[in-house]
Amino acid sequence: MANRKNEKIKQSGPRSTAAPGPLSSLRSVSQGASAMVIVVGCLVLIGWTLSSETLKSVFAGLSAMNPTTTAIAFILAGVSLWLLRAEQADQRRLCIAQGCALAVALVSSLLKLVEVLGSLYLGIDQLLFRITSAGPKRDSY
Asked: What would the DSSP string read from start to end of 79-136?
């Protein structure tokens, strides 16, 4: 009898350790938000690759999202959040998540701030795609 119970447990696979209630809901929100941010960043990069104005700007009528400083930052931030969604992230996941967060801070914030305040052109916006602005409409940061 005990062997049958053990076999059933082995066959059923790992069980969810998520706590019921608000904590479980917050984990679900975190998981959904990280996936959505990653998808948006990827769609924008696909839009730039295919020259699709609809995909470049998340919503019709908005400025195109910058592929380097914004779309890549979206993907990295989403990956970081995804890796940290577990209750106890192991050391490897934690290091990767922190590296992604650091890259977001460096590329989309610090280097862009240096460009703007220092009147210096580092060409960060042009790393992946050549961006041409037509008229007063600028790419969003």
From this structure: HHHHHT-SSS--HHHHHHHHHHHHHHIIIIIIHHHHHHHTT----GGGSSS-----TT
